[in-house]
Amino acid sequence: MMSPGSSLQQLRLREHQLFLALTIVVGILAGLSAVLFTVAIDWMTRLFFGLDPSMMRLFVVPVTVSLVTGALLAWVFPDVRGSGVPQTEAAYHLHNGVIPGRVPLGKFITGVLCIGSGHSMGREGPSVQIGAGLASLVGRWVPLSAARVKDLVPVGAAGALAAAFNTPVAAVLFALEEIIGDMNATLLGSTVVASVASVVVERSILGNEPLFRVPAYHLQHPIELLAYAALGIVGGAVSLAFYKSLLSARRLFMALPSWTRVWQPAVGGLFIGGLLVFSPQVMGVGYEYVDLALNGGLVFKTMMLLCVLKLVATTVSYSSGNAGGIFAPSLYIGAMAGGAVGTIVHRLAPGQTADAGAYALVGMGTLFAGIIRAPMTSVFMIFEITQDYQILVPLMVANLLSFLISRRFQPVPVYHALLQQDHVHLPSAATRVAPTSWTAADVMGPDMNFVSPDTSVQSLWEKSDGNGTSAFLVGTPERLVGLVTAQQLAAAMESGRCSNPIDSLLDPEIVHAHPDHRSETVLDRLAQSGGVLPVLSRDDAQRVVGVVTFADIMRFMRTRRAANANGARTLLEHATASMSRASHPQSGS
Amino acid sequence: MLVILCALVAVGFMLTRAAAGANRALRLRDAAAWYETGEHRLADGQIEPAIRALRRATAINRDNRAYWLALASGLAADHQDDAARQVLLSVRAASPEDPEVNVRLARLEARQDDLAGAVRYYQNAVYGSWSGDKADTRRQVRIELIRYLLDQQQRGRALSELLVLSGNLPDDVKSQTEAGQLFLEAGDARRGLDHFRQALQIDPKNAAALAGAGEAAFEVGDYPSAQRYLRAVKSASSHVVDLLAVADFVLTRDPLRPGLSLRQRQERVMVGFRRALEALDECASKQPGNSGALESLRTEAGALEPDLAFERVRRTPETIDSGLNLIYRIEQRTAETCGHGTAFDRALLLIGRRYETERQ
Questions:
Q1: ipTM of the complex model
Q2: Which range is least confidently modeled, A177-186, B146-155, B160-169, B241-250?
Q3: CA distance B1 to chain A (A)
Q4: Which pTM value belongs to this model?
Q5: How far, rounded to the nearest angstrom, does the alpha carbon of residue A422 sit from its chain's CA centroid?
Q6: With an 8 Å Cβ cutoff, are A32 and B9 in contact?
């Protein structure tokens, strides 16, 4: 008869084999979805704009379609706004890879409408979310274990990106670097399989045509690396400009009353319509203009203008809540900025430098490294596009500089910053990787005492004097407003602000922990908090799931010690029994 | 479950493939429409809209060579030579032996005075993979190369190409005449004359061949043939008339022509001498700044003139040589200083030059 252990092992083996098979299926599905998404955007663009659209059409289409997408995004598919990459990361890290079935469908429909109607957004981000969503659906439908469903999400994302951008290696790296956040992930093999399956499907349908025609690349002179370094600095600056404007504009839109959300995409559409009348080149994904920049088809002034206009257009399209990504726009802006820098450099030293096209190419990677903050992906992506080894060194020089500048002035990567605006805090790499003795979830207590923000300093001071509490949570369990410490109250009393409400004392940055934070982080933050550390949900960083105090930690440590002692005793008894059985084999079980 | 999934994937693949195929057909149609618009605009001289349309065509359908070539034409017409070259080079990367692309590149390089580049692309075109019925086009490209080399004063290289051309010419008047003309321009009048004669064997009254043969014969110093061919040209150009006049003078005024008596020789020298002195005076009045050199020739002529009288010539016939030498030097000097004079002056120069050559 089979023992329970061996049957469990067999079950695991079967699931492992099933997972491998599903990796291929998901890769193909993701590839198909990416191809279909691209084709649908093409169709929609042709339907909306025809071959040679009039000015009126250029203006009216984005506004009108955005009214429809605004309604869809507000009432039917509220979780598919924006790129899709941050949402996929959140699904992977915070929701065990569970992505509701309506997400890929909604993303497909709204993405096609938004990008097809001229919004300056990319198709790669939505493709990633659609691919990941399909993977999650398949994993749950089969069904796989929760851990395996989670593992399928980056696999689907890699497959979709590989097909959408026709760069299988960069897609694998993107999944590891951006979605999983760990280059040593055990899912490397699965993402590679899915990526290959997806690209095979994509090429068998669309042919093996590269996304861009790339001119032959040559480093003309070693001193030209200085020019690429300059491009890296410019790229870093432009990345920062894009980053800041995107987040600022989005903050502005998010600060508007909630009833305006349904109209916000149309406001973006109105702006984009006006811009398209002036410059139709910023419409949609815009890869044909990237191709032109790569092949010397644009002059300096045009490239400068398009760089600025695309940045503005993408900022407005994205921040107004439309569905579409920033992957393609970052490449577009990079190509224009790179082309402009290249034109100047080539004019100054024609003999020692390559044509503007080469700089446009490196510029694409540079902006990607600066904005998306995935340096390995950016290098391999351009390398895959050019298939030219010579470009690697200039590319690495420019990308590294852009990456460093961007990171220096904006430490949080753009996708994470976008999630933080939605009050979603992804775990850091350090939190994810190392095992720990205990986490905030282990020690936090359920006793949470909240006070209203309009409570006066005087009344809270009296309360604190009575019960000896060192800090108070302000707000409600669903919406934490801040934290006020006894020292802050004392200082306010001394300065005569007794009748002031306590929200006047609140710090805008709430010291907090998340349930998966390790002991070191919890202790460090507890010390900063004044003795009461709120533990906030990662997917809604305003919701309090518990509180950690020194007393909670002491209680947890005592309990664990007792449990360890019990465990040791049990182990000793078990060992004694085993020895006894060994010395008296006939004496039953 | 897995089987159902695989079936779904297979259906999805078919549907996506069908959708992508339909989309591709639509895109190709769009590209063709843009191309047509671009060609019309180009023909109407609306270069910028033409370029925009052709760029759209090439962006949608990158595989159509005709679209790229049309775009390159538009860019070249707009004097965007670098962009045009970039386009042509990208087409050439796919098929380096494409003669049409190479010719266009050669023309661009020629326009930018890059002799080496132009010749390289012309030669690539000439030796490119021409299809069977394009032999005539290949010849035309070679002729274009020869003309370019001649324009660039590369006579030696032009002659090398001409010799190859000469061996592959069809036996028709037009081709033979064209080759003869090119040889003439390259300075090989003898080979040129051969081609003109071949043309005349086919069509003895062909005016271009007659004029060419006359000029070639004139260049090789066969003035009787030159006279014969040039006289046969109907509705002759001023150049032909001019050449004929010079040839007539050479034949009627050459003192060294075989069969002449000493008196006839002396008379011809005297006629030439007087004309040379007239030319000298005319030139001196036109260019007073150069009067020093001309004056010394005038003095020399004054000293020689009495010796050219028949009585003295009869005693010392070598004086004819001195007379001829002076005539030649005077005509050479006046031609250098004041340009070529009358047909007679040029005839005297030719006679003198031949005499000097024979004497050396």
A1: 0.77
A2: A177-186
A3: 6
A4: 0.74
A5: 12
A6: yes
